[in-house]
Design a protein that fits this description.
The chain is of the alpha/beta class. The chain has helices at residues 11-19, 36-40, 93-108, 111-120, 144-153, 183-186, 209-213, 232-240, 282-300, and strands at 2-5, 25-28, 44-46, 62-64, 84-86, 136-140, 159-164, 176-179, 192-195, 220-223, 246-249, 269-271. Strands 8-7-6-9-10-11-12 form a 7-stranded parallel sheet, with helices on one face. Strands 2-1-3-4-5 form a 5-stranded parallel sheet, covered by helices on one side.
Length: 323
């Protein structure tokens, strides 16, 4: 059986994975260089190829994404009906949590102004700002990313409010849990609102003008999930009305953000180019290496995959994650 391996793992990690499965034939290619013949001839595809190849192959039995997002692959006819799909939920969570807290702290503590001070060799005290400690933090989308954030923000003595699709037992580090249907009721209490939502039909523009208007005037809005969750034009409108202490965006709508977009020009907006989670972070490399080994083992033993995707929802099925 052939495994076509495209991910951004280091060479030594890919070779380590291959050494665990001498019975499998590993073909190492790249996201950019993979050919249609390679895709057609593989039994398992590891990685996210670009759109220049068709993935509906009768031979392909499984596809292991290196991303948590799976929206590109669950549409009708994208994959063969016999191909199972698993995502990389959990791989990027720790790095993304660090990035999120870093963005918040940078805006809270006026770091952007102090960096400008350094360039000008100036000793200017801007004073004030905003604290995280003892704040109410609302995390919308309580998967692995949201859970890792909650765990770390508890160190700031925050009240953590979780919002998810359906009700469930309240996880550790979460003080209150609500469903998305209750979002409008609970938004006004949050000092920080962090969107960790994937791109699905239900999440597009979930943060529109009306919903952002419900938030505190000095709240902080953060989006690290998918850019489509926050309506860009509506965000500009509420910013122009004086809303928000700050807005932190690692993802935008559209993406990449147009150089001419006025979002770049707001002093209260901090934008990074979708870099919070990636395989240059060792935590992601470690997690995905273990995940691929586990899922290839399950493939051989004909067991359910970790993070197997439900094609109806685009989410991983059940509690099958590594951590």
């Amino acid at each position: 059986m052939k495994v076509l391996f495209l991910t951004q793992l280091s060479d030594d990690r890919r070779q380590y994975i291959a050494s665990k499965f001498p019975q499998l034939d590993f073909i190492f290619s790249s996201r950019e260089g993979v050919t249609q013949d390679e895709v057609n001839d593989c039994d398992v595809l590891v990685g996210n190829p670009r759109n220049n190849v068709k993935l509906n192959s009768a031979k392909m039995k499984a596809m292991f994404l290196n991303s948590a997002g799976s929206d590109r692959y669950i549409g009708p006819g994208v994959l063969n009906e016999n191909t199972k799909l698993a995502n990389a939920t959990g791989a990027h969570s720790r790095a993304m949590a660090e990035h999120t807290i870093g963005m918040i702290l940078a805006m809270n503590k006026n770091f952007q102004k102090y960096f400008a001070n350094m360039q000008e060799h100036g000793w200017h005290n801007y004073g004030g700002g905003k604290e995280i400690i003892n704040s109410t933090v609302m995390i919308v989308g309580l998967g692995d990313i949201g859970y890792n954030l909650a765990r770390r923000l508890k160190a700031f003595d925050c009240k953590i409010v979780g919002v998810k699709r359906s009700i469930s037992p309240v996880p550790d580090y979460i003080d209150e849990l609500y469903t998305v249907d209750q979002l409008d009721e609970v938004l006004p209490q949050a000092d920080y609102v962090i969107s960790c939502l994937p791109h699905t039909p239900a999440t597009i523009h979930i943060f529109n003008y009306e919903r952002m208007s419900l938030m505190k005037d000095d709240a902080t809005l953060v989006n690290i999930g998918r850019g489509s969750a926050v309506a860009s034009e509506d965000l500009k409108k509420v910013l122009d009305e004086g809303k928000f202490h700050s807005v932190c965006l690692d993802v935008t709508e559209p993406e990449p953000l147009d150089p001419e977009s006025s979002l770049w020009d707001y002093e209260r907006v901090f934008i990074t180019p979708h870099v919070s989670g990636n395989y240059y972070w060792m935590s992601a490399q470690d997690y995905f290496t273990d995940l691929v080994i586990k899922n290839l083992t399950n493939f051989i033993e004909e067991k359910p995959f970790i993070n197997e995707v439900d094609f109806k929802t685009g989410y991983a099925k059940g509690k099958t994650r590594l951590l």
